[in-house]
Amino acid sequence: MEEKPRRNISEEEIEKLTASFSTFNQVTQELRSAYQELEDRFGDLNRKMEETNINLKESLVEKEKVSRYLTNILESLTSGVLAIDLGGKVTLFNRKAEEILGHRAEMAIGKLYGEVMGKGADEKLTLPFVLECYERSRSESESCAKGEKEIQSQTGKNIPVSFSTSLLKDQEGEILGAVEIFFDLTRSKQMEEEMLRMKTLATLGEMAAVVAHEVKNPLGGIRGFADLLDRDLVDGDPRKRLVKKIIEGVEALDRIVLGLLDHTKPIRLNPKITNLVNFIEEAINFFEMDATRNKSNVRIKKSYSQNDLYCRVDPEQFRQVLLNLLHNSVQAMPHGGEIRIELNGEAGVLDSNKTEIKMLRLRISDTGTGMSQTAKEKLFTPFFTTKERGTGLGLATVKKIVEAHQGDIQVESKLGKGTMVQIRLPLSS
Fold first, then answer.
1. pTM for the complete prediction?
2. What is the largest CA-CA distance in the chain?
């Protein structure tokens, strides 16, 4: 094969090639420098982004801590806290508000204030109220209302509360709605009523003791002369019947005076560790014999959580409590009915020294006529009675005996639907 002749490269072509190679090297060097600069800038940006991300994470963690801390404070408050928006809808509902009203937060949020707090309470924190506050001068106090009112729980129970409402604003001062803080006054009101009752009873007791002694002496004289007159009258004399009426009247007055004197005396207990199940069974047997003798159409149903429930009671005094309540139930059922007796243990409660005390709960319910709210409020007041021949001292004495045993007594009753009396006593091991 014939070899082709080689072509000689001219100097001009060599110069052009050298210039092109030099230009390529220069461009390559510039590109390398630009790449290096870009890489350095990217590294700086990446480091700054990492620092920013770290700062952001730290900020979010800190904000989360603050948010949790504020939430814990809100949930630990002993007062209910509720907030609404400008539309009057609930936006915040803390744990204590759940306890007081019986609503779950998730069920309350989004509802109108009046739906959550009950009818009659919504005039204090509704849209017109918030708008009224909005129209006020900014220089005025932001606390729009405070005082006491009644709200309504989910069960329909009226709850007295003290409250304070204020406008809710953002950082720019724009009004977002309103916030209300409220505290349950039920226990405080009960204690006020109890103190007033005790003060009234103390005054009444002092007066009653004097009056009873003053009345008892003339009664003794009347009874003595009536007995002499009765002895002088022959059988069959129509006046003898009138003398008997005088004697019966004196005996009734004497019973009232004796009851009054007993009520004013401090109760002296002789407590013993007693199995209350056996004790109640004995009292019921005695009561049923009396009920059978009087031909009352009453059924008794019993329910005990266990057969051994012990507490320290004075047997004589506490038997008086049981029989008094059972007789009251019978009298409330003139056409017969059912008495239900329940006895069980109850979760521990704390005394004034924060020591847990387990309680024993006794409930006596009947299907009788019940009582009005007015009668219920005066139930333990001495001399208040709805019975034709009652003295009004029975339940007042029952309460006194129960409290002497370090217990408490509560009554629930509705007119025409019966009555339930609950007694709680400290449980003994």
1. 0.51
2. 183
Examine the pLDDT at 146 and tell me if it is beyond 90: no
CATH topology for 77-184 is Beta-Lactamase (3.30.450)
The kind and range of the H/E element at 166 are strand 158-169
301 touches 284 (CB < 8 A): no
Token readout for 413 is 């009753």
DSSP of 43-97: HHHHHHHHHHHHHHHHHHHHHHHHHHHHHHHHHH-SSEEEEEETTSBEEEE-HHH
**Per-residue pLDDT at 1 exceeds 60:** no
Q: Supply 51's token pair.
A: 């620092």
Exposed, middle or buried: residue 141 (CB in 10 Å: 0-12, 13-18, 19+)? exposed
pLDDT of residue 217: 77
- The first and second tokens of residue 310, run together, are 């012990």
On whether the CB atoms of residues 379 and 411 are closer than 8 A, the answer is yes
The string of pLDDT tens digits covering residues 19-29 is: 777 888 888 88
272-426: CATH superfamily = Histidine kinase-like ATPase, C-terminal domain (3.30.565.10)
pLDDT given at position 306: 83
In angstroms, rounded to a whole number, what is the distance separating the alpha carbons of residues 399 and 423? 9
Contact present, 169 and 176 (Cβ < 8 Å): yes
Q: Same CATH topology for 77-184 and 272-426?
A: no
Domain boundaries, the chain: 77-184, 189-264, 272-426
Distance CA 204, CA 418 (A): 31
